[in-house]
Amino acid sequence: MNNTTVQSPAIHNALAIAKAQGVLFIREFLRQQKSQGVQVNLGPNKSASLANLQTALLEGTIALTALEQWIHEVEGWGQQHVYLFELPVEFMRQVNADPQTALHQLVTDSPHQAVLQATDQFSFPEAMELQQIKVQQGSLEVIWRQQASNTLRVRAQDLPLQEIDGDWYEFRAFRITPSRQVMRFLLTPDTGTAALYIQLPLGKAHRLAHSAAVACVQAILQLPDLPVKDLAAPIKALDRLDLAAGSNPLNLHAHSTKFSTNGGTIEFTANQHISGFKQIESMRLVRRSLNEADFTGDTGHFNIHLDQSGRTIQMSVSARHHKCYFKAQMSGFEMRRIITYLSQL
Fold this sequence. Notes:
The strands form two sheets. A ten-stranded antiparallel beta sheet has the order 2-3-6-7-1-12-11-10-8-9, sandwiched between helices. Mean pLDDT is about 90; it is low at about 1-5. It is globular. It is an alpha+beta fold. A hairpin with a 2-residue loop joins strand 8 and strand 9 (about 265-270). The chain has three domains: about 5-75; about 80-220, no CATH class; about 230-320, no CATH class. The chain contains ten helices and twelve strands.
């Protein structure tokens, strides 16, 4: 392959990022490449799939730019908290007149214009770092990344018991795989969707990242604050989807929902062996009798069947915290579809 020496560091880092993704996503990428005429085998397991991917990259049969696009679509989606915002009507009206031009101008006029369309895709910054701002197809995407690592227990590499200074020690082996935590803000004016996606677990680092991201986005959009979206009504609407006899666009089932009023709560929930509490006839009848006008949506836990992959993922929605949580790794397409639907309720 031409320029192997120049491209090797990028390929090395790209493969490290790919290795942290689920095998279903890796095989799907190889399958897509194969459908486009690339000579590459899928492999029976993750190790084989990664080896085939590496060979294809080194031989030039798969372009690094294709892998870059795939990484952007799978890295940092799912297993995360999502905060929804409802931006001012007048601001959205002005942007929607010409989204591409308006968003590009906002970024250009902001303190962060130097990051616009940056090409650094594969680095592993030690701290959460603003790395890219994209304005494409009338949408704004702001991306932060930081290095992380996954550990996998490998018993075959354990060492035998050793006696050291009269004490016995047991050494257990873990393989460390480099990965990245990704945080992104995505604004899609034509659907009215504005959301902040954070993979960091709840805690101090999460709170600091959230505050920094909000401040950055405020500076870009030139807004004094980012109004959060009230999720109380959407929780009721999602729960109602499962009751309705008509279409269910998300193929969603409510596993549990909680409603509150005047300091009291009512909660409907199913045990872990049932995908939704409305499978129980008596509970469905009680839920139908609830006068929703007297209650606000508090929390909801939903199972969503993903048509493309055939997987079922869990989504939790909290009105009090103005956020959702997704328990499984997902693709950008899957996540954007759900968040767009939720933002329009």
